[in-house]
């Protein structure tokens, strides 16, 4: 265990909060920052309930370099796990400047603050969306990148920025983690994804259909070249994904460098398979209808996770049934996510 802390940006969000739990459960020192634009301070309280540890939290925007520098001054940080960002693909085409500013300018502000504070290890939340419509399935990291939407391009550009920085400054280390489709919730049922408004993604939408909050799932197209005509994705359990970040930090200590890794299971499922898997967890079939394709969707995004398996000594372990059961457990215990929970973030903790 390092005596210095890991700074987690976006640590109140879905994947960040699960990662903070894994860091605390392995006795690592953690400092969390988040501007809470897409999350709630209640997530931090729930991390504390699950881990029985106090979370050091600052409500800070990564665009605010001065505030970042203060955090780096106050705490001895050795690495940053950088989750903070806007992530809705559809929205990114409507307000591209907001996405480029928040995600890219925010990351530059963070990297500058890191450089000025002599912190040169970063784990970055990239995405399978950087592969666009891939020509090889399962997808190896070596495939050329080429996103089809502004959100994806922010991920692609940030990867380039971090790689360029590592090339220029010989002592920087980075893990560019390309997540496939995160799903599920913490097994305690205390923490999970907390979509604000209508969920964009399949599994949270399906969970809201199951509790009667939404009438019916619209399946976006069944005329793709797949066994049942619906798109294939690689759904990875969020706790497995969180553990991938710890593996990346460990690797950085033993074997520095700047490397891309796919974090996925290596197994793809169609939308209809996911509906059936989640229906099994719920105990009855869920209503769905086939509608037009969603613009921008691609046929198949399935990871080849061999590089992460070998170099990070990490492997996705939780099966689909357990992932669906964890989502259902979380959804039934929190019908409105964290929306009903009161509580402003303290200015600092
Ligand atoms: P999330 O929205 O739940 O978490 C992101 C957090 O970042 C939120 O708590 C939000 O308030 C915070 N944030 C946003 N802009 C900020 C800023 N300027 N300063 C400080 N905090 C800010 O999303 P998530 O699903 O946990 O995703 C985490 C990261 O992983 C994101 O970068 C996302 O793009 C990436 N990613 C997510 C998925 C997915 O399907 N969930 C897949 C691939 C990659
Ligand atoms: C999964 C499948 C839809 C909703 C997105 C981002 C990606 C990454 C993960 C951040 C697709 C279908 C969905 C619905 C449906 N995020 N679907 N009805 O699009 O694979 O990936 O989240 O980096 O960048 O693009 O995930 O959950 O939206 O969709 O039929 O109501 O479910 O068409 O085939 P996607 P998703």
UniProtKB/TrEMBL annotation:
GO terms for cellular component: cytosol. Its cofactor is NAD(+). Its EC number is 5.1.3.2. One of its GO terms (molecular function) is UDP-glucose 4-epimerase activity. Keywords: Carbohydrate metabolism, Isomerase, NAD. Homodimer. PANTHER family: UDP-GLUCOSE 4-EPIMERASE. This is UDP-glucose 4-epimerase. It comes from Circinella minor. The lineage of its organism: Eukaryota, Fungi, Fungi incertae sedis, Mucoromycota, Mucoromycotina.
């Amino acid at each position: 265990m390092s005596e210095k802390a890991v700074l987690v940006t976006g640590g109140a969000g879905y994947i960040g909060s699960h990662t903070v739990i894994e860091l605390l459960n392995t006795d690592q020192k953690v400092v969390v920052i988040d501007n809470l634009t897409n999350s709630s301070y209640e997530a931090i309280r729930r991390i504390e309930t699950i881990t029985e540890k106090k979370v050091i939290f600052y409500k800070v925007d990564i665009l605010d370099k001065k505030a970042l520098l203060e955090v780096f001054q106050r705490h001895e940080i050795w690495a940053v796990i950088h989750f903070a960002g806007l992530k809705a693909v559809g929205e990114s085409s409507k307000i591209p400047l907001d996405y480029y500013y928040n995600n890219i300018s925010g990351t530059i502000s963070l990297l500058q603050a890191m450089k000025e504070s002599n912190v040169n290890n970063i784990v970055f939340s990239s995405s399978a969306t950087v592969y666009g419509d891939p020509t090889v399935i399962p997808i190896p990291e070596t495939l050329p990148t080429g996103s089809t939407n502004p959100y994806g391009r922010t991920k692609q550009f940030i990867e380039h920025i971090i790689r360029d920085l590592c090339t220029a400054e010989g002592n920087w280390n980075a893990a560019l983690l390309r997540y496939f489709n995160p799903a599920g919730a913490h097994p305690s049922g205390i923490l999970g994804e907390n979509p604000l408004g209508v969920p964009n993604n399949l599994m949270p939408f399906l969970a809201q259909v199951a509790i009667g909050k939404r009438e019916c799932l619209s399946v976006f197209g069944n005329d793709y070249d797949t066994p049942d005509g619906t798109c294939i994705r690689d759904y990875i359990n969020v706790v497995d994904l969180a553990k991938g970040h710890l593996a990346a930090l460990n690797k950085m200590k033993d074997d520095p460098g700047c490397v891309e890794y796919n974090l996925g299971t290596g197994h793809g499922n169609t939308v209809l398979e996911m509906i059936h898997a989640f229906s099994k967890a719920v105990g009855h079939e869920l209503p769905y209808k086939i509608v037009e394709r969603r613009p921008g969707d691609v046929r198949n995004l399935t990871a080849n996770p061999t590089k992460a398996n070998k170099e990070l000594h990490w492997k996705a372990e939780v099966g689909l049934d357990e992932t669906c059961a964890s989502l259902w457990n979380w959804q039934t215990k929190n019908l409105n996510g964290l929306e009903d929970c009161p509580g402003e973030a303290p200015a600092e903790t």
